[in-house]
Specification:
The chain is an alpha/beta fold. It has 7 helices and 15 strands.
Length: 235
């Protein structure tokens, strides 16, 4: 269920948006505001996951409002002015919908929001059968994953305190689908590294922050994975 809050200085625009939302399955309008200051005073206490913000408003525009709440809420911008598009996407919002808003276009925006919300909920941990039974592992604790040397169907996970856990019978493909994509990268056919564990990155090698005896663990970058790694690091 998407629970949204609307902010628009025009009451007719609010009424129209509410009408559209009521026609869309699994969307509930929790509250609507026509004043940015009142919206900001109340938003932290409202049970919602999406905010629909008009950009062009007197006093405080939607871009300024979004900067204050974008860490906690998914944002869909609405505006009649196309010149705000670049600024809107700089804020990493869900979507930018031009007025007059059409129902089909709003549905597209909600679908994007739904996918982002689901991903953020399901990917802060993984749950799988391990050498110690069915186990929940929080992804922010994982520093390194490699194919088991005992059985290639299994994967060894190293946690940030040095604990090693064996995931039983799990492919890298399925494992990567369970991990947050922005936090992990496959380096070669047998190894995945947490981005936070990378110390030095070159075209052929990654030096990690993971101690291996007197040195740091080094990983060789496979040819197949160079492109995606370079893209991840903006190279």
């Amino acid at each position: 269920m998407i629970k949204c809050v609307i902010l628009d200085d025009e009451l007719l625009a609010i009424s129209y948006l509410k009408l559209l939302c009521e026609q869309i399955d699994n969307v509930e309008v929790v509250k609507a505001f026509n004043d940015p200051k009142i919206f900001l005073n109340e938003i932290a206490n409202l049970d919602c996951n999406v905010c629909i913000l008009d950009i062009e408003m007197p006093g405080m525009n939607g871009l300024q409002v979004a900067e204050l709440i974008s860490d906690s809420k998914k944002i869909i911008f609405t505006t009649a002015y196309k010149e705000y598009a670049a600024e809107a996407f700089d804020l990493n919002v869900v979507d930018y919908v031009r007025k007059p808003i059409k129902k089909e276009r709003l549905i597209q925006a909600f679908e994007k929001a739904k996918e982002l919300i689901q991903n953020s909920h399901k990917k802060n941990f993984i749950e799988w059968n391990t050498n110690i039974g069915k186990t929940v592992i929080f992804t922010d604790q994982i520093v390194y994953i490699k194919t088991s040397e005992i059985d290639s169907r299994d994967k060894d996970i190293i946690l940030n305190d040095g604990t090693a856990i064996v995931l039983k019978n799990l492919s890298f493909r399925n494992l990567l689908e369970m991990l947050p994509a922005k936090d992990f990268a496959q380096v070669n056919k047998k190894e995945i590294i947490a981005i936070s564990s990378i110390k030095i990155f070159s075209t052929n090698e990654i030096i990690t922050t993971i101690a291996e005896g007197e040195h740091f663990l080094k990983l060789q970058i496979g040819e197949t994975y160079k492109g995606s790694l370079m893209e991840m690091f903006g190279k």
